[in-house]
Design goal:
The chain is of the alpha/beta class and 366 residues long. It is built from 11 helices and 14 strands. The longest helix is centred in the middle third of the chain and has 19 residues, at 145-163. The two termini are 28 Å apart.
């Protein structure tokens, strides 16, 4: 189970894995199929109370009330951008907040094509990347698997109402470092892909990391089926250390070795996420060094146009330097695409998610 976050002696069902839920039901003397019914109510039907679980007897619901509690996340605020990107501020049961984003890609006729949800995995982040609003918050706590899944299930329901279509993809690129919350993130992907939940294919899920080598190796050893993305953002140790403190202890050599281990175990390519900063990592030599990294194992590179964060002096690369950079990558055989800013007018872009309430600052290595 995740770190304890209940304020009562009752068991918070949203902190239990599927296996743990079965064990809990067994402790109450319930048959195993009851655990499946409860699981489906929690994650497919989005029940917030035991009263809603109408295929359970009244006696059983009362027994659950006595020993268990459900702590769903709640929408505190919602904003829609001019490009129809929607940002959600969710309130957690302990008063903390997280942000999640729905990113629709629209067809020419105005219908939704691909609908991606960007979910958070932690309240804040400990790694303190200099360009990231979440990193400036510091780290407060991990999310339980159920709190991660709740973001996806709520936004899936919203998407059906708003766009007439279910979500098609989930990226773990919101607040937090997913592999710093390894157990709960992996469990959340198992819940999301379960037929009694969203039933999404693992190939539609991408988990991002700043480069936690041990956890990358573990993903490989466990043959985790979802996609892996690496937040690279600089192609040399010197430059990466300037903007990403994690590189002081886990440098590019450690990342290379971990990724080669991962690919040998899974035969799955990776995606490198690369924020392009004006006259910092967007020159010809940067493209040459990035191409070397892209050849470590089969991969593609997402060049991301930076969304400005308050208090950060670094700026988005100019269009002419972006074009030169992309040509240089293409000339060296790198498979690269440009990811344009989405939701920039509501601070919903990459690196912009944060709890903007003034108050405490969490732990950080930055």
């Amino acid at each position: 189970m995740s770190e304890p976050i209940t304020t009562t002696s009752k068991t918070n069902l949203k902190t239990l894995s599927r296996k743990e839920l079965r064990e809990f039901c067994d402790s109450l003397g319930l048959k195993s199929f009851r655990a499946d019914q409860i699981f489906q109510w929690l994650y497919q039907k989005r029940a917030d109370t035991f009263t809603e679980m109408t295929n359970l007897s009244l006696d059983l619901r009362e027994k659950l009330e006595q020993g268990a509690v459900i702590h769903p996340i709640k929408v505190a605020h919602m904003q829609e951008a001019s490009d129809q990107t929607v940002k959600f501020l969710f309130s957690l049961h302990d008063g903390k907040h997280i942000e999640s984003v729905l990113i629709p890609e629209m067809n020419d006729d105005g219908t939704a094509d691909r609908i991606t949800v960007c979910v958070s995995s932690q309240v804040g982040c400990i790694f303190g990347c200099s360009f990231c609003a979440t990193g400036k918050m510091g780290y407060f706590r991990n999310l339980a698997a159920g709190e991660i899944v709740d973001q996806a299930t709520y936004i899936n329901e919203f998407s059906e109402q708003r766009f007439g279509k279910k979500i098609t993809n989930i990226v773990y690129m919101g607040m937090g470092e997913p592999l710093h919350n390894y157990k709960e993130v992996v469990e959340s992907t198992a819940i999301i892909t379960d037929p009694l939940s969203l039933g999404l294919s693992p190939r539609r899920i991408t988990v991002s990391t700043v480069g936690l080598a041990r956890q990358i190796r573990q993903l490989g050893d466990e043959r985790q089926p979802f996609n892996l993305a690496v937040s690279l953002h600089a192609p040399t140790d010197e430059k990466r250390t300037q903007i990403m403190p994690i590189n002081k202890s886990l440098n590019l050599k450690a990342l290379e070795e971990a990724l080669k281990h991962y690919f040998a175990a899974t035969n799955q390519p990776v995606t490198y996420e690369y924020l392009l900063f004006d006259r910092f990592n967007d020159g010809p030599e940067d493209a040459k060094n990035l191409a070397k990294i892209a050849r470590w194992i089969p991969s593609k590179v997402n060049i991301i146009m930076y969304n400005q964060v308050n208090g950060v002096s670094m700026k988005r690369a100019k269009e002419d330097r972006l074009n030169q950079f992309m040509r240089a990558l293409t000339d060296q055989g790198v498979r690269a695409t440009v990811r344009r800013s989405r939701g920039d007018d509501i601070d919903a872009g990459c690196g912009q998610l944060a709890d903007r309430e003034k108050g405490q600052h969490g732990k950080t290595i930055g």
